[in-house]
Amino acid sequence: MMNTEQINTLFQLAIDRQENGLYALSAIDSNGRRIAPGRLASFLFFSNEQALYGLLAVTDEQSVHVSTNEFFQVFVGKPHPFVSFSGQSEKDEAHLTAVREAARVWNEPDFWHYAELDAGTIRFDEEKIGISASASMILHDAIREKIQASAMRFEQLPALLPHLKKYGWPGESVSTMPVRVAFRLTEPDDDAGSTEWLLETVVVSERGAHWTPAVKKVNAPIADALPAKWKSYATEIHEKQSEMVSFLQSIQVEPGERFLSMPMSDPEVRVFIQEDLPVFQSFGYPVILPAWLKSVTESKLRVRTSASVQSYRSAAGLDEVLAFDWNFSLADKEIDQDTFRKLVDENREFIRSGDEWFHIDPQWLKRIRELMDQADAGEWTVKDLLFQEIPEEIVPLEDDGESDDPLLAFSMKQSLREYVEMIADKHGLPDAGVPDALNAELRPYQIEGYNWLVFMRDYRFGACLADDMGLGKTIQLISYLLNVHSRPDTSSPSLIICPTSVLGNWQKEIERFAPSLVVHTHYGPSRAKDEAFDQLLAERKPDVLLTTYGTATQDDETLSGTVFASITLDEAQNIKNMQTKQSRAIRKLHGEHQIALTGTPIENRLSELWAIFDFIHKGYFGSFRTFNEQFIIPIERDDSAVEKRKLRAKIRPFLLRRTKNDPDLQLNLPKKLEQNEYCPLTTEQAALYESFIEDTKFKLDTLTGFERKGLILKMLSRLKQLCNHPALFLKEPASPADEMLRRSVKLNRIVSMAADIASNGEQCLIFTQYIGMGQLIRHCLSELHDLDVPFLSGSMPKGQRDHLVDAFQAGEFPIFILSLKAGGTGLNLTAANHVLHADRWWNPAVENQATDRAYRIGQTKFVHVHKFVSVGTIEEKIDKMLQEKAALSADLIQSSQWITELSDAELDDLLTFER
């Protein structure tokens, strides 16, 4: 007996549209009692079989969560016999009214006649169809969700719109026939020599049997072709076939009154499977396919090619044309070239081998044919192969045993492989001959680097020398410059662009190792520009032009007027941000050869890699957008091993990187390398330096004996602090780190070098005589690089000191600052492989004792000692004196007292500032 309490029950809905596009629905009855979400769902979906009448509905403790389409479908079907709905608030009622409006017009037969597509949006003529803008938006969202839930794509909707206008949304009407109308696709009969497929209409009985007309009735009208038991359904069968045919995109056919029977080519079958099948499946139209076609994958057709050349005797072999030997197989059976070319010419996509069928992408076949034609025409050389300037399919990737079996397998004959590897690995290249004018003896790996730079120049390929700090990138480049500027055809200077902090270093190193090179420094407010610059080059004819990144950016118009013999970027990571004015200006400069020097592992910094390669070999990686899509996104987002291999293969020929951990290099390196890091004074420092010198000279003239010696020692200490940083000299408090770095090149250089060492996973000691300098370095490393750096000074208790030493040895922090007196003796700090002397002690023995904290028994790594010297100052002059006196007798310089014994002439020379 029917429960009378259920008759005409009113549920009041609260409708909440959420950010994810779903609706949260909750309800109360007429007495204000909350309806449990599960019970509410059963009423909402009482006639929806796909939702299992509400059992599949998503609910929580408060609400039922539905999509626009699900909410919309509640009101498309017949209303619930016992329950009706209204809105709890005016807003809820308005939303409910809009949903009802949308459901009403959806059921109207001419609904799709009022629909239009505009820039990816479905619009309706709201006035003609009689709905509000809210109802129109609900229809738009519901249709989008229907498509997303199907196998269709939204882009297919414009092509389907004419058919929707004629037949409505398919699959929503219920058929009363005892049979189904279906399409059946049948493969070609290879035994009969046929290459055509057959698409035909079949009638599927209740038992699943497939019926098609007898041969003699193939062209008869549907009513005449059908068996007597189904003749009464002829009109409905004809209408269903017409509806299905209207959705075909792969072929244009009008079967008229007869059953469809249509031959199809391979390309038409591919379009049918790609475009038509998803639509039929989405709308519930049955399609019967060959069983094998449901699981067919790309074919087992394999192409193998091996390349070879005639001669590998010299570098001239780079211009040798590659010869290719092509082999084909299908299902592990060999195919000759004529058969392969026939497959391409016939545009075949589905091929049978034995009892198996295979699908082959015809575009891929055509691509292989194009590659074969290019190869046979002799378009590629060994140079193209080495530098990846050939189609991607031919590029041999690194074999890690994990890559998928490729459709095209490329290999090289053994002799060609050995030759290419020799060049790629930079071993055994032609000997360029170390220049006689070089005042240094190159180590074996440095000779290899020098030979490689010359080789890359001769073949017009940019080069990135990325050796570890301390392996001698500078001396390798200077050797290269001597080679270039000894050539009779070199008529313009080479340009070196470097950070301001190493400008002095370059001046000193070239003077030291290649005094025959004429060097001009393009820097400072009095530098030549425009016509004056061109005149300077014509008159002085410098071999090398030194400038800084900042100056090159400001003077890009002046510098771009010259085609330089070579352009070298030192610390090339300075152009890593390709959008900055500096990076764009420098990448616009013109040179016969471009070289990048960097000690950072650029393989792991992909945006930096693009900028550097765009400088050394313009256009090699295409636009940054292309590089981002091809490499950065797949590698950084998806960690794609395939793209990593491709990228390594592409950069390998242009990149020479050796590390101090390379066992081959360890055999050739000294246990300790000491070098000066020359830093110019800033304008502020230079002005303070000259003023202080003048005042001190005046005072020295009025003093004699002990007082004079005391003033000299005090003056030296003050000047050393000024060379470190003007704030120390002026006794100013620390200000923001970036501001402090701008006032001292030396501080900037120490902080950046220490940060680089830490980022490379190495450890360093920084020694200074001054507490203020140690605190300043610590402040900058903390603020700019987020490095918490301990500072061991004389006031530190022994327990804390011992704890810090143990922690540093255990690798708990990468940088350790020590005062020279407190940390110069008695400590074992062999975890460090870099030692930075921020300021010079006049007694070399004290410096050596400090260095020996790292360079001692237990040290297994190469130790690199950096001594920071301010150019043109007392630091540089005393450094030279120490070298001269050390050559005579180490005993003379075992204390700083020797400085006070200098003659007036020597002291005057010592105090002269050389800009």
From TrEMBL:
Keywords: ATP-binding, Helicase, Hydrolase, Nucleotide-binding. Its EC number is 3.6.4.-. Residues 749-911 form the Helicase C-terminal domain. One of its GO terms (molecular function) is helicase activity. The keyword Cytoplasm does not apply. It comes from the Bacteria. Pfam families: DUF3670, Helicase_C, SNF2-rel_dom. This is DEAD/DEAH box helicase.
